[in-house]
Structures are given as structure tokens and as C-alpha cells.
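USER:
Before I trust my own judgement here, I would like a peer's view. Write it directly below this note and I will take it from there.

ASSISTANT:
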Amino acid sequence: MLLEGVTVISFNPGMPNTKMSEMSGANHTEMVSLMYEKITHKYCDGNVQHSDSWNER
């Protein structure tokens, strides 16, 4: 996957409550929100490529 014209909108780190037994093995998490102008998916199986852009029809 290839993103063009990327802007990071938000970044939110998180840490689960590891004092709870069911969360004892959980690691920290990060949520990242991105905005992009164009995205290109390339599927190696069959060599298929597809692009989508906000500015092109």
C-alpha cells in the first residue's frame, strides 16, 4: 500500500490497566489517524494495482 500527500491528524498513545488479570499480557497501544490525497493498493498475487484519489475522477 502506498499513500501520497499524507498528513498525521492525531496520535493517541494508550496503556491498558495491567493490574487486571485478563490484561496482564497486554502491551501499550497507539492510535494514529491519517489523511491522504491518494492511495495505491498493489496485490502481488496476479500483479494487480488499483489507485484512488480525492482529486481525480
Summary: The first strand starts at residue 2 and ends at 4. The mean pLDDT is 90. The chain is about 0% helix and 55% strand.
